[in-house]
Amino acid sequence: MTVQSQFAGVWCPAITPLDQDGKLDLNGLKQHLQRLTRANIDVILLMGSIGEFASFTLEERLTLIREARTMSSLKMVANVSSTCMNDIQRMAEEAYRVGYDAVMVLPPYYYGQTPKQLLSYFRQLGNILSGQWFAYNFPARTGCDLTPDLIATLAAEFPHFAGIKDTVDCQSHTRSMIQATRAVREDFAVLSGYDEYYIPNLLAGGAGVISGLNNVMPELFVSAREAFKQGDLETLREIQQNIGTYMSIYAIGDDFVSTIKTVVSRKFGYCTGVSRNAGGALNEHECRTIDEVFDIKS
Q: Is the pLDDT of residue 180 over 50?
């Protein structure tokens, strides 16, 4: 019988609300995390890609780590990725200190990394991190791929290596990751980074999903989680089709962060659509499209 990871299920990589001047909006963040908590998801990921981690100073990131942990009773994981190992260690230590269940780390970005370099890098991390940790595979952004064999090697060596977010738009890559890691660790969590692969991930034996759409409609993914537990294939079919429809959000606007924040702003009203790396606010046509897709009444 497969041992389920304690981190299995529905994750939300939470947006980081900003005010109109682009400063941290902790009140908006609190409202957002409380809404996610009420929706009964399993884990909140702080400062993922949608959370704009690369746009914040180290001090802002430490502030977010401290403040956000008090805003939800759910399991929480902090993305502490950086190109500076000392900053990773500092953020990770603070996250563990204030009660995060784990941290998450990308491979070094900007410089392309060979498999040998990646193995050395994550072994160094495994030796300095004092708590549970996840790897974050996003080759479209980092220029390198964490292969199933590499991750299985690390999973066998480091008991605190809890899992991986596999953000690769190829289900066979994630399926291979599941098979390779299962051979060495039954409790290792392989999570899809693409919303529409949640149900295929579960069917392949994976642990779940880290889905940007959960910022908008966590209830849909929670219902999929429950339907899967009950073996309700008809409901899963309907949910999969709905997820496919809502995936159109990623084609609206110039960047998915601003688009998701705009949906949250228009649908729930507690944050702005401002993001630091956006090329500008969505235009009127794009906002109307959002309203139509998500049934937002003006």
A: yes
